[in-house]
């Protein structure tokens, strides 16, 4: 048994009957970030995840990558994992937005002194950094390969029974289980939701030409086609992540394509911007749906991340929105606990909901609007879009607004996400 495995098992075995401040259901990127940020502030937690961390961090298990905004990077720096990630992320120095590669594109390129628009990380690298830090943190009790079979919330605390028979207690229950959150559904939260009837194909590409740290967002009527810069591999090969959105009716045919045919279809949509291409990661796909919870709190319950809001990946803001949830919830809890309130206090949860509801709704509404605007087919809509994009290209103030949104530096930011 490795030293890290031993550490994890020890961290996952608190004293019987030990009550902690939080029970976090879901140990993914958002849930574990909350646990680690809380631990750095002296807040204890139980983290419950049905997955095996070894499976999640195995080579080739997940070829996905995430754009980490400037604000989210500040969070990682403030909780002490930036040093382990710094050399693994590729800066996004500019974003090129185009309607089908026709004339009239927008180039978002900040001044050198303003820094990048974000960084691209392999999800595997993010998990490894979070998991390694969590294993060393005594304030985190990590329970893996198990799940909650009973959740009770009462006036004096919460109690969760695990599938292995253990019973955990805390002041506050946090649902970070992702889009299909059983805790959210059990609480009866109403969701605004719809199906885009699209599917995102995600993979990695090797390519002949360097990407120059530029992300491409190419809009086609069938859906956006994004190329996101990654660091060169150990052999010096240039790499980018691909997120290709297609209509659900076409998805089965694309899934059935052999790799060579898939690569040809991808290349035809790239118009040679990165030269010859080949696959660098396994192909994955998932359906695209929108959901937004009207409430993100209940008695001794807070909902964060994809459990609270699921959005189109068009702007790469899904994970960043979840990390803003983390920062806001932690700030509310730490300030309240400093005043002698417990984490499950209704006043604190109400403040969290008020803070996050408007921000999340605004980001998701803009993302949904862009998806629908660029999905209108035909020459006239395309011409109108390109006319508008040309106007934005010539307006520095408007471009700066969009760049601040991409960095996640707009609105009321939690302290952990500030510079």
TrEMBL record:
Q: Which UniProt keywords apply?
A: FAD, Flavoprotein, Monooxygenase, Oxidoreductase
Q: Which InterPro entries match?
A: FAD-bd, FAD/NAD-bd_sf, Ubi_Hdrlase_CS, UbiH/COQ6, UbiH/COQ6_monooxygenase
The superkingdom listed in its UniProt entry is: Bacteria
Q: PANTHER family annotated for this entry?
A: UBIQUINONE BIOSYNTHESIS MONOOXYGENASE COQ6, MITOCHONDRIAL
Q: What is this protein's name?
A: 2-octaprenyl-6-methoxyphenol hydroxylase
The family database entries (Gene3D superfamilies) matched by this protein are listed as:
FAD/NAD(P)-binding domain
Identify the pathway: Cofactor biosynthesis; ubiquinone biosynthesis
Q: Which GO terms describe its molecular function?
A: FAD binding; monooxygenase activity; oxidoreductase activity, acting on paired donors, with incorporation or reduction of molecular oxygen
Task: Report the PROSITE patterns cross-referenced here.
Answer: UBIH
User: Would I find Transmembrane among this entry's keywords?
Assistant: no
The coenzyme or cofactor needed here is:
FAD
Q: A GO biological process this protein is involved in?
A: ubiquinone biosynthetic process
Q: Which Pfam families match?
A: FAD_binding_3 (PF01494)
Family assignment?
Answer: Belongs to the UbiH/COQ6 family.
Species of origin reads Novosphingobium pentaromativorans US6-1
Q: Ranges for the FAD-binding domain?
A: 21-358
Answer whether the UniProt record assigns the keyword Flavoprotein to this protein.
yes
Record's SUPFAM superfamilies?
A: FAD/NAD(P)-binding domain
């Amino acid at each position: 048994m490795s030293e890290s495995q031993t550490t994890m098992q020890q961290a996952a075995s608190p004293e019987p009957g030990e009550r902690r401040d939080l029970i976090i259901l879901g140990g993914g990127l958002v849930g574990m970030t909350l646990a680690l940020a809380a631990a750095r502030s002296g807040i204890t937690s139980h983290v419950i995840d049905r997955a095996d961390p070894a499976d999640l961090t195995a080579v080739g298990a997940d070829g996905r990558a995430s754009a980490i905004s400037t604000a989210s990077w500040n969070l990682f720096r403030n909780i002490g994992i930036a040093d382990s990630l710094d050399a693994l992320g590729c800066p996004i120095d500019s974003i090129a937005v185009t309607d089908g590669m026709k004339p009239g594109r927008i180039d978002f390129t900040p001044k050198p002194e303003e820094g990048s628009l974000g960084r691209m990380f392999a999800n595997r690298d993010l998990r490894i950094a979070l998991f390694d830090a969590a294993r060393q943190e005594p304030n985190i009790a990590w329970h893996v390969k198990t799940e909650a079979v009973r959740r009770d919330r009462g006036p004096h605390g919460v109690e969760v029974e695990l599938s292995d028979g253990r019973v955990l207690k805390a002041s506050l229950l946090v649902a970070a289980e992702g889009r299909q959150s059983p805790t959210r559904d059990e609480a009866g939260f109403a969701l605004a939701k719809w199906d885009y009837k699209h599917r995102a194909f995600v993979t990695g590409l090797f390519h002949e030409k360097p990407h120059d740290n530029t992300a491409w967002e190419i809009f086609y009527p069938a859906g956006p086609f994004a190329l996101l810069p990654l660091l060169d591999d150990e052999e010096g090969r240039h790499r980018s992540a691909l997120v290709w959105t297609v209509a659900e009716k076409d998805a089965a045919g694309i899934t059935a394509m052999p790799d060579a045919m898939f690569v040809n279809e991808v290349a035809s949509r790239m118009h040679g911007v990165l030269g010859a291409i080949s696959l660098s990661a396994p192909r994955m796909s998932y359906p695209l749906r929108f959901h937004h919870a009207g409430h993100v709190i209940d008695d001794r319950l807070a909902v964060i991340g994809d459990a609270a809001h699921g959005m189109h990946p068009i702007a790469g803001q899904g994970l960043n929105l979840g990390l803003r949830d983390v920062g806001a919830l932690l700030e509310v809890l730490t300030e309240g606990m400093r005043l002698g309130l417990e984490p499950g206090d209704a006043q604190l949860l109400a403040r969290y909901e008020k803070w996050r509801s408007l921000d999340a709704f605004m980001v998701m509404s803009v993302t949904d609007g862009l998806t629908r605007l660029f999905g209108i087919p035909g020459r006239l809509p395309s011409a109108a879009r390109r006319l508008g994009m040309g106007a934005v290209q010539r307006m520095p103030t408007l471009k700066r607004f969009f760049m601040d949104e991409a960095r996640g530096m707009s609105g009321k930011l939690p302290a952990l996400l500030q510079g």
